[in-house]
Design a protein that fits this description.
With 192 residues, this protein is mainly alpha-helical. The chain is built from nine helices and no strands. The protein folds into two domains: 45 residues, no CATH class; 144 residues, no CATH class. 72% of the residues lie in helices and 0% in strands. The radius of gyration is 23 Å and the shape is flat. The protein starts with a helix and ends with a helix.
Length: 192
């Protein structure tokens, strides 16, 4: 390809971009998007209003569960790094969990058109794995948690509600209160 052909190709691309912008093309979706932008991008107006209302309520519960799960991962990582340094994952996490996380990350990385969870293998684990990591390193976590069965129960209960919501289910208020109670107890015990 000649220099002139490259120039023409590039210039045509710039003209096309300019024409799209003038025609009202919206910018790339980013983290600054408003709720109205998200509603429009997801075509909320095309979906059943009652189903949307229930789904939005469940999304609120899911947001709390997600924040809890992220904070639990941060807590685990902080404790493990302080006790074992940067090599804690390779040295202290059961091989089966390591393999699960590596397989999940590899699978996500094969889908180039979709975002991933990142590089931290801990983000590729499941809630039950978090309890197992704590249990397998109990001496490190006992000063913070006191009883492993308590921690396992919290993860199990919250994961059950998480799975119901993630598979289009509906939680009753008692289930939502249980999630809230478990989150409150965890945060009071180990911090946010």
């Amino acid at each position: 390809m000649s220099d002139r052909s490259i120039y023409e190709f590039t210039y045509r691309g710039q003209l096309a971009e300019s024409a799209l912008d003038k025609a009202g093309r919206k910018g790339k979706f980013n983290n600054d998007a408003t709720l109205a932008d998200i509603d429009e991008a997801l075509n909320f107006d095309l979906l059943d209003a009652d189903e949307m209302q229930d789904s939005v309520r469940m999304a609120r519960v899911y947001a709390a569960i997600t924040a809890f799960e992220k904070s639990a991962r941060i807590f685990i990582k902080k404790v493990m790094q302080s006790e074992h340094g940067e090599t804690w994952w390779a040295e202290k996490v059961p091989q089966k969990i390591q393999q699960f996380a590596e397989d999940r990350r590899s699978e996500e990385n094969t889908i180039k058109w979709h975002g991933t969870r990142g590089d931290d293998l801990l983000t590729y684990t499941e809630m039950g794995h978090l309890a197992k990591i704590i249990e397998n390193n109990w001496d490190d976590f006992q000063p913070h948690i006191r009883r492993i069965d308590w921690a396992k129960s919290i993860f199990s209960t919250i994961e059950r509600s998480r799975n119901v919501i993630m598979h289009s289910g509906h939680l009753e208020i008692e289930d939502i209160e249980r999630v809230g109670m478990n989150i409150r107890d965890w945060v009071k015990q180990v911090g946010a």
